[in-house]
Design goal:
Number of domains: 2
Number of helices: 11
Mean pLDDT: 74
Shape: rod-shaped
Strand content: 5-15%
Structural class: alpha+beta
Largest sheet: 10 strands, antiparallel
Number of strands: 16
Length: 546
């Protein structure tokens, strides 16, 4: 409306000018005549002066009106350009926000998805490796089957592939972060250039306003400058917004980095277990150097030796290994292997077979004193077992492993070995549970193979009930001569964990019977001998607590 008013006023001024010019045209002959007649000049000169004054007045009015209209036009132009600038800025900002937010959100979502998926896979593999490799040390001694090695190998391959994916995702995250930092650097450099351009444009505006009176030229120049400044302001606004977005991106990257750190922690734990699993799977049972590495050496010992491994466990010594104990009635201390991680800890090993490295076909005195390596194949000794099992009521657990990798166990409550005066006879107690069956009492009902309260027999001290016994019409009087080793024989037995160590390739040569390591309520095959065994004890009250 204001611009229309200015146009009307200008039109009125122009019409007035035209009317004055018309009046001048009608007076022209008289003025010419006056110029020829000097005597008529005063009247004509007065009219001329009056006309000049009117012209000056109207020119002033036109200049004032024109300046007012130009100011209003500039204000309208400025509002229009401001609206355009804001629209351009908002459009640019919206498009940039949509693009940047979209890319960031998609990248973060994809990275989180990959981490979550791979971490789930890693956790599953980790759980499998824990089952296969993070076993108690006693089971490390037992498990050597090829099937387990294959399972470990497959699981480790999955873990390694998962670790590679996580590592690649971490590299991608670092690259994206570096790209954002580079973009920030470019934006800052662009902002410096724009600021310099802004200063130059402002200098041009000040120069033009001070040096020019031409309204049309000023308007054209201002329009060009305002366009440049609009572009500059839009770019600066975009820069400011992107700077804010960089902070948002940084927060998102920190969030993703936290997820990556969790995944890396799981990956590190998996890698440790993977290395352990590989070492266990590849371990050779007959390698004495490797055996030395499996058992912790120079473990801290309490000032006063405990009575057994359970008391040691209650004192806070929860690392499996070799310790010195002194049962209540024993005058001397002796070394035992304490299993502190299996089934509640506190187990004292009294017998172990695993690789045939120790000869168990020994005489009476050897079995009384004990033999072998405490941390390897061994028999603790009947005297030591007597002292241990007669200071409390004990639970016996027998663990068995065959050559196919199958495992079984049997548990007895109230196990005790009597003294040398009673020929180290065994009080088995009650068979409470297990998957191997009660071979100690035998598979037959006549009690001829029941080891309960049977005396201990070796090749040089015969305490069994064979007077004589027969195998396929062949008679014999000492079960230890027939089956090897020393054991609680009656009329021989359906169990003998101290028998000859026989490997599968030698089974065909056994003929009618191998008479090796037997537990016939589990593997009732006369031509089969077990691969590994463990006998260990723990106070009955302790097992009920754990």
């Amino acid at each position: 409306m204001k611009s229309s008013g200015c146009s009307a006023i200008i039109l009125i001024v122009v019409i007035s000018n035209l009317h004055l010019n018309a009046q001048r045209s009608t007076k022209k002959p008289a003025r010419l005549k006056a110029t020829r007649d000097p005597m008529t000049c005063p009247d004509n000169c007065a009219l001329k002066r009056r006309i000049g004054k009117v012209e000056l007045r109207f020119e002033g009015d036109v200049s004032e009106i024109k300046a007012s209209c130009l100011q209003e036009i500039d204000a309208i132009r400025s509002q229009f350009l401001d609206r355009n600038i804001s629209r351009v800025h908002l459009t640019t900002q919206s498009e940039t926000k949509e693009n940047v937010d979209g890319k960031i959100s998609r990248a973060v979502a994809q990275f989180k998805f990959v981490i979550s998926k791979q971490q789930t896979k890693l956790e599953n593999a980790l759980s499998q490796v824990e089952k296969l490799s993070a076993l108690p040390s006693l089971e490390e001694d037992l498990y050597e089957s090829s099937q387990r090695q294959v399972e470990l190998s497959n699981t480790i391959n999955v873990m390694n592939q998962t670790l590679m994916i996580l590592q690649q995702q971490n590299i991608n995250l670092q690259q994206q972060t570096q790209a954002i930092r580079s973009q920030n650097t470019v934006l800052r450099a662009s902002n410096d250039e724009l600021s310099e351009e802004n200063r130059q444009l402002m200098a041009v505006v000040r120069s033009m306003k001070s040096n020019s009176r031409d309204g049309l030229r000023i308007t054209d120049a201002e329009e060009n400058i305002l366009k440049q400044m609009a572009k500059l302001n839009a770019l600066q606004g975009q820069f400011d917004w992107l700077s804010d977005q960089l902070n948002v991106i940084s927060d998102k990257m920190d969030e993703v980095a936290l997820e990556a750190a969790k995944a890396a922690e799981t990956a590190g734990r998996a890698e440790t277990l993977s290395n352990k699993a590989i070492s266990v799977a590849r371990r050779q049972p007959t390698n004495s150097d490797r055996k030395e590495q499996l058992v912790p050496k120079n473990l801290p010992q309490p000032d006063e030796p405990p009575s057994d491994c359970w008391e040691l466990f209650e004192m806070g010594y929860n690392i499996s290994g070799i310790y010195r104990v002194r049962p209540y009635r024993s005058r001397e201390t002796f070394q035992v292997y304490c299993e502190q991680s299996y089934n509640g800890g506190g187990w004292t090993l009294i017998q172990k077979r695993r690789d045939g490295s120790v000869d168990f076909n020994r005489n009476w005195q050897a079995y009384a004193d004990g033999f072998g390596d405490v941390d390897g194949e061994m028999y603790l000794g009947n005297d030591k077992i007597f002292y241990l099992t007669n200071q409390d009521v004990y639970r016996l657990q027998v663990i068995l492993l065959d050559w196919e990798g199958h495992r079984a166990y049997a548990e007895y409550e109230g196990f005790r070995v009597h003294s040398n005066n009673d020929y180290y006879s065994a009080q088995l107690g009650q068979y409470t549970r297990g998957t191997a069956g009660d071979a100690f009492r035998g598979a037959v009902d006549d009690g001829s193979r029941n080891a309960h309260l049977a005396r201990f027999t070796t090749t040089d001290v015969d305490n069994d009930n064979c007077r004589p016994c027969f195998v396929d019409r062949d008679e014999f009087e000492n079960c230890a001569d027939l089956e090897g080793g020393g054991w609680w024989f009656r009329a021989c037995s359906d169990s003998n964990l101290n028998g000859r160590y026989i490997q599968p390739q030698d089974f065909p040569a056994c003929g009618d019977g191998c008479y090796g390591i037997t537990w016939r309520t589990w593997r009732n095959d006369p031509n089969y001998s077990l691969k590994a065994t463990i006998m260990m004890i723990k106070p009955l009250a302790a097992t009920e607590e754990s």
